[in-house]
Structure to design on (532 residues):
């Protein structure tokens, strides 16, 4: 059975494409989603650091001419050489290590762990770059004026931590296609990422906890080196505003990344609710949410397996019997039911088997039984069993029918019509009987089957033998015709009373009225006088 992916962005966003795109497109997409957002984020972090250290945080002014060579030469060069080159080098190196995913190679457990740890690797690269910036700029400004060290140290650290937090979330988003490939064969035995709780706490710590702690440090330094109330108010307002915006942005991205797997599972559940058991979600999250996605796929697989077993069970014993067994616990024994029984037996089966190969005989019987099953199902009965070249069908058990006898008689007439038209190589005698029989489970406690036992079954089998010698090869008991509704009973005619083999009482024999009609005389061709 072919699985269908849950529609509408299987990886949680249209930016990430689909799971079946070409490896080249996947590599370009992931590379672009890694490089562009991280580059913009680092540039914003650098600008934020310059604004804070130059205009917001109280302390010595660094826009004085003595810092000009740092501000206009060292800072731009450092940003261009370290951040840009380092960023491209970090993403290129990561993509090289994840080449197996962009070339559709099966992942090893080491590959899986490397893919899930990809966001941490990029975040560590950013942390190294910002640490280098922290040491470099603190040293440069400290050489000119040691009093600028606390100010530069705080602003660069504040900007770097915020940038690293965004880097982690954005790279985790960009690497979803790689994570999906890594998790196709299941999660690695050892956890490779933080759980949902750990990730949430980390985001709060980097996005809100550290900036608020920095704001408190500004207040502490104001006691050590008093600043004007205007400068202090500006610092509190700007840093507080940045903290609110950064905290909101990180929280929003974190919530979106957590909600995406839940939405995919919800859409999959909607498919299952609509009866589409082929639903399957892409597993791309390494946290508990990924376990939720995996759990849904296992549930859907279990439902598919259960449906296959139910269908197979129904094909073997009949869908009505299978449904009845599912509704209640089947037990040995049965109950008396008023039923109609239809028995079909091939005429000349020995000759057919002797003049055809076994494969050809099986193919012929399958076509023969296709007609029987189709018509029995269409008339509300079910084929209880196949016995070589014969079949037994029951009407009125386990499902009650308003006119079980009429349904069996109509099915018998229709089967005979279709056999002549569709399986002309085979002739069959069909017998129909009706009466009280015991319907239930027969066998042992470990192995039993649903069937009917009683006089109607034996009578139908004997009538099928008689049917082989009567016009139309179709015979029914008078009791079955009497139990049918008037419309169907009018299609049958009682011809005689006979004693069936193995029975003591006589049976009224009925055959279809159209079988009693005489064959039309062939119309003689117009004679043409012959000229002497």
């Amino acid at each position: 059975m072919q699985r269908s992916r849950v529609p509408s962005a299987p990886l949680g966003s249209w930016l990430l494409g689909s799971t079946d795109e070409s490896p080249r497109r996947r590599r370009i997409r992931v590379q672009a989603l890694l490089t562009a957002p991280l580059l913009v984020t680092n540039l914003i972090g650098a600008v934020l650091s310059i604004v804070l250290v130059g205009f917001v945080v109280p302390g010595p002014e660094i826009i004085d001419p003595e810092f000009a060579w740092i501000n206009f030469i060292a800072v731009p060069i450092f940003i261009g050489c370290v951040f840009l080159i380092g960023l491209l080098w970090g993403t290129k190196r990561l993509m090289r290590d994840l080449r197996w995913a962009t070339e559709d190679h099966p992942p090893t457990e080491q590959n899986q762990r490397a893919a899930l740890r990809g966001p941490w690797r990029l975040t560590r690269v950013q942390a190294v770059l910002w640490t280098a910036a922290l040491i470099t700029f603190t040293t440069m400004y400290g050489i000119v004026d040691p009093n600028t060290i606390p100010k530069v140290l705080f602003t660069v650290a504040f900007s770097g931590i915020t940038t690293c937090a965004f880097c982690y979330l954005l790279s985790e988003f960009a690497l979803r296609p790689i994570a999906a490939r890594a998790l196709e064969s299941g999660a690695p035995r050892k956890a490779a990422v933080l759980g949902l709780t750990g990730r949430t706490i980390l985001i709060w710590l980097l996005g809100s906890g550290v900036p608020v702690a920095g704001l408190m440090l500004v207040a502490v330094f104001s006691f050590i080196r008093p600043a004007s109330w205007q400068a202090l108010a500006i610092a509190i307002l700007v840093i507080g505003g940045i903290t609110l915006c950064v905290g909101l942005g990180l929280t929003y991205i974190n919530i979106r990344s957590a909600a995406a797997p839940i939405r995919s599972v919800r859409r999959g559940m909607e498919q299952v609710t609509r009866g589409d058991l082929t639903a399957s979600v892409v597993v791309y999250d390494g946290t508990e949410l990924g376990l939720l996605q995996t759990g849904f796929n296992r549930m859907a697989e279990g439902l598919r397996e259960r449906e296959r077993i139910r269908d197979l069970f129904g094909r073997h014993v009949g869908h009505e019997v299978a449904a009845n067994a599912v509704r209640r616990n089947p037990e040995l024994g049965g109950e008396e039911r008023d039923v109609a029984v239809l028995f079909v037996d091939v005429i000349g089966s020995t000759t057919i088997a002797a003049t055809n190969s076994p494969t050809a005989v099986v193919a012929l019987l399958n076509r023969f039984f296709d007609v029987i099953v189709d018509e029995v199902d269409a008339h509300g009965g079910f084929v209880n069993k196949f016995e070589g070249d014969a079949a037994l069908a029951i009407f009125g058990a386990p499902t009650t029918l308003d006119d079980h006898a009429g349904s069996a008689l109509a099915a018998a007439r229709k089967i005979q019509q279709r056999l002549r038209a569709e399986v002309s190589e085979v002739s069959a005698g069909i017998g129909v009987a009706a009466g009280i029989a015991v319907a239930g489970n027969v066998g042992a406690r470990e192995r039993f089957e649903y069937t009917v036992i009683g006089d109607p079954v034996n009578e139908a089998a004997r009538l099928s033998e008689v049917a082989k010698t009567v016009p139309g090869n179709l015979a029914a008991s008078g009791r079955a015709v009497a139990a049918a509704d008037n419309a169907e009973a009018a299609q049958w005619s009682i011809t005689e009373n006979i004693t069936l083999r193995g029975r003591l009482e006589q049976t009224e024999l009925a055959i279809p009225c159209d079988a009693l009609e005489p064959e039309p005389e062939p119309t003689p061709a117009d004679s043409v006088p012959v000229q002497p």
Confidence is low (pLDDT under 50) at residues 1-7, 523-532. The beta strands are 4-5, 279-280, 333-347, 382-387, 390-395, 427-443, 448-453, 474-477, 492-498, 507-512. Residues 229-273 form the longest helix (45 residues). The CA atoms of residues 436 and 491 lie 23 Å apart.
